Amino acid sequence: MRENAKDPERHARRMAAKQKVMQDRIARAQNEKGVLLVLTGPGKGKSSSGFGMVARALGHGMKVGVVQFIKGKFTTGEDTFFRDLPNVDYHVMGDGYTWDTQDRQKDVQAAEAAWEIASNMLKDPSYDMVLLDELNIALRYEYLDLDRVLDDLFNRPEMQHVTVTGRYAPKELIELADTVTEMKVVKHAFKDQGIKAQKGVEL
Amino acid sequence: MRENAKDPERHARRMAAKQKVMQDRIARAQNEKGVLLVLTGPGKGKSSSGFGMVARALGHGMKVGVVQFIKGKFTTGEDTFFRDLPNVDYHVMGDGYTWDTQDRQKDVQAAEAAWEIASNMLKDPSYDMVLLDELNIALRYEYLDLDRVLDDLFNRPEMQHVTVTGRYAPKELIELADTVTEMKVVKHAFKDQGIKAQKGVEL
C-alpha cells in the first residue's frame, strides 16, 4: 500500500496546497498555527520527548490526545502516569488484545482501529495536541495507508499541534512536517556496555 | 575554571575508576545500575525528553529530583505540571531572583546555588532519578566547575539515574555518560518558516 504514497498527483496536490497555506500565512505575518513535529532517528528519547511535550501542554491547560502505536500489551510508565489524568485521552493500539500471534492481518486490523481513533482526534479541534507515539513504526511495516495518514494530518484543525514519534519516518511525512528532529546515537549503554534495560529509564 | 576539567591526572583517575567499575559490573554479569544519560545537540526535544523520562519514572513510583539550569524567571508548562506533584522535588535556578542584570558574578552565584541543590540530590539514594535540565548551558558558560560536576555525577548512588540536557555537552561529560543522544535539526518551523514560538509546543 506504500505505492499509494508515491502517487505523484496526490503528493503534488498536497504539497501545492501546503505551500499555498504557508505562503498565505507568511503573507499575513500572523504565523501562529498548529505545528506538526516529527521525532525520528535511532537515538533514544523520541517517545520521552513526545510525552514531555504532553506534560508541557497539560501544564498550559491544553487538552491532549495520545495514541500509542506499539505492538504488544504491556504497561509503560507513561501509561500509568498519563492515562487517568484529566485532559488526557489515552489509547494504546491493541489494548486488551493478545499479540502472541505472528498474524499480520491482525496487526493491520489493530493498527487501523488505532488510526480510526487518531483520525477522529485529528478532526476534533477540542484536542489542542495529539501525540501519535511510534506511528512511524506502523507506517514502516505498512500496517497503515500512508496517504490516508498524511491526508488526515494535513486536514487537521489549524491550531492543533501533532507530534509523531518513531524510527524511520517516511520521507513524505518529513516533507509535510513543520519541525523534524533526528535522534542520533552517540553512545548507548544498552548496546555498548551490555547494561540491562530497566524500568523508569529509556536506555 | 574549565582548565581544571582538563587536569589530566583527575581525568585519568576518573576514567580508570570508571573503567574498573564497568569491567567489574560486566564481569559480574549483573548489569543493573543507574544510567547517566546526556541529551544534547541543536535539535528540539532535549528538555521534553528529559521531562518525559520524569513522567515515566513517576509512573513507576520512583522519586525524582529536577533542577532546571535556565537563565531567566518564567513559568514553563513543565514547571506548572510537575512542580506540585508528589514524588517530585523541583527547583529552578534563580527562582525568585531577578535576572535583569548582565552581571556574570550573579549568574555564577545562582548556578552554584542550583548546583548545591543538585549535588545534594546526587548524594541521596532516595532519589531514583535526577533531571539536570540545561546543565550543559551552565557548563558552556563556565558558570560551574566542570570537575566538581563530573565528580558529583560519578560518585552518585549506584542505582540512581541522571539525565542531563542542553546543547554543547562538554566532551568530558559525554565520556562519563552511559548513553548520549544528539538531537539533529532536520527541519525547524521556527527558523525555516518564521512561525511564532507558542506555548505548549517546543518548536
TrEMBL record, chains A, B:
What CDD domains does the annotation carry? CobA_ACA
Q: Does this entry carry the keyword Hydrolase?
A: no
Annotated InterPro entries: CblAdoTrfase_CobA (IPR003724), P-loop_NTPase (IPR027417)
Start and end residues of each stretch annotated as Disordered? 1-20
**What's this protein's family per the entry?**
Belongs to the Cob(I)alamin adenosyltransferase family.
Q: Extract the PANTHER family matched here.
A: CORRINOID ADENOSYLTRANSFERASE (PTHR46638:SF1)
Q: What is this protein called?
A: Corrinoid adenosyltransferase
Organism, per UniProt? Marinobacter zhejiangensis
